[in-house]
């Protein structure tokens, strides 16, 4: 044995402080973006049954939610609206007094420095649940772009700092960039859902946002989970059209895509840790099968290691509390 030569990697693992000294990736509260589901009405705080700890809240509960986020050091949110009324064109998505627009104005009133990301889509607002105009059972790409641009401009007018279009229509970044620029919002960035797979992990979100399609599915405009090169083509198009951030959604089953996008493009990459990923751990923890804190922190750190600069996650409050040692 005395002549045997090999590397002793364990030398750097002998204590917690030594392990911390050589740790390569860190999760910070600044990395986290917390999703908020805002609904019309008063005194509404509806628990989302499939997402423990997540609620639909009316605007009178918004200050309470923001106070907690601010205390935890979470300074970025993404707003999803759940309107009282829906129609074929999703008109409340671009109404100046739509629920997201009202929420954005209130956030800026309560916490002017809070970064407000506005989800820009039509599916929550249409009676058919699809992300665009429907005619004869087909989702029309180009006519939808005008409505998405109108929605983005109305959100920017309400105070949104970042526009996050999630619809997956071809050309949506170009249309929104043009609309924002023409309306004078040249400094409002676009956080594009550049790589959005047609995933089975979205189920709980659709409960929260009331956005399930009333017919068919979204596979004609969301990506096939089997494809990798297509993800880079999608991201390339969005960069060329003016995207400032690139979202990969979902995150956990697509860490390879996050790394590909990070390697290929010089833009901040955002991992969307989606509802199904969140709810699986919550359910397992509730049954005593897993250590929730350890699993959540490992999962989020894996997204940073894969290349994510930011993470949209429903676990943001839990993670922030753990980071702070609470």
TrEMBL record:
Write out the catalytic residues in the record. 196 (schiff-base intermediate with substrate), 249 (schiff-base intermediate with substrate)
Q: Which cofactor names does the annotation list?
A: Zn(2+)
Ligand binding (5-aminolevulinate 2): 275, 314
Enumerate the InterPro entries for this protein. Answer: ALAD, ALAD_AS, Aldolase_TIM
Which GO molecular function entries does the Swiss-Prot or TrEMBL record give? Answer: porphobilinogen synthase activity; zinc ion binding
Keyword Zinc listed? The answer is: yes
- Entry's Pfam families? ALAD
Q: What is its EC number?
A: 4.2.1.24
Q: The organism sits in which domain of life? A: Bacteria
**Pathway field:** Porphyrin-containing compound metabolism; protoporphyrin-IX biosynthesis; coproporphyrinogen-III from 5-aminolevulinate: step 1/4
Q: Per UniProt, where does Zn(2+) bind?
A: 121, 123, 131
Positions that bind Mg(2+): 234
Query: Example GO biological process term?
Result: protoporphyrinogen IX biosynthetic process
SUPFAM superfamilies reported for this sequence: Aldolase (SSF51569)
Q: Which GO terms describe its cellular component?
A: cytosol
Q: Which residues bind 5-aminolevulinate 1?
A: 206, 218
Q: Which reaction does it catalyse?
A: 2 5-aminolevulinate = porphobilinogen + 2 H2O + H(+)
Cite the record's note on assembly. Homooctamer.
Supply the NCBIfam families for this chain.
PRK09283.1
Family statement drawn from the similarity comment of this UniProt entry? Belongs to the ALAD family.
PANTHER family with a match to the protein in the record? DELTA-AMINOLEVULINIC ACID DEHYDRATASE
- Name the chain's protein: Delta-aminolevulinic acid dehydratase
């Amino acid at each position: 044995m005395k002549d045997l030569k090999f590397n002793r990697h364990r030398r750097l693992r002998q204590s917690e402080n030594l392990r911390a000294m050589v740790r390569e990736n860190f999760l910070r509260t600044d990395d986290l973006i917390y999703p908020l589901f805002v609904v019309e009405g008063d005194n509404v705080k509806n628990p989302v049954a499939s997402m423990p700890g997540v609620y639909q809240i009316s605007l009178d509960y918004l200050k309470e939610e923001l106070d907690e986020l601010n205390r935890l050091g979470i300074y970025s949110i993404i707003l999803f609206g759940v309107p009282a009324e829906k129609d074929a064109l999703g008109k409340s998505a671009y109404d100046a007094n739509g629920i997201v627009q009202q929420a954005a104005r209130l956030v800026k009133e309560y916490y002017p420095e809070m970064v407000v990301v506005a989800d820009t889509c039509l599916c929550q607002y249409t009676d058919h649940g699809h992300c665009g105009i429907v005619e004869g059972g087909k989702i029309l790409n180009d006519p939808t772009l005008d409505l998405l641009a109108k929605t983005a401009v109305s959100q920017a007018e309400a105070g949104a700092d970042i526009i996050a279009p999630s619809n997956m229509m071809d050309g949506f970044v170009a249309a929104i960039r043009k609309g924002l620029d023409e309306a004078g919002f040249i400094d409002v960035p676009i956080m594009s859902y550049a790589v959005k797979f047609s995933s089975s992990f979205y189920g709980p979100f659709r409960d929260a946002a009331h956005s399930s399609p009333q017919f068919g599915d979204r596979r004609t405009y969301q990506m096939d989970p089997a494809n990798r090169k297509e993800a880079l083509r999608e991201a390339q198009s969005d960069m060329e059209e003016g995207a400032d951030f690139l979202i990969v959604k979902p995150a956990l089953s697509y860490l390879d895509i996050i790394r590909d996008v990070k390697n290929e493009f010089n833009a901040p990459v955002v991992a969307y840790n989606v509802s199904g990923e969140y709810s699986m751990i919550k359910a397992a923890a509730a049954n005593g099968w897993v250590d929730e804190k350890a699993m959540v922190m490992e999962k989020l750190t894996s997204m940073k290691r894969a290349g994510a600069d930011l993470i949209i996650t429903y676990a943001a409050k839990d993670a922030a509390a753990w980071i702070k040692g609470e």
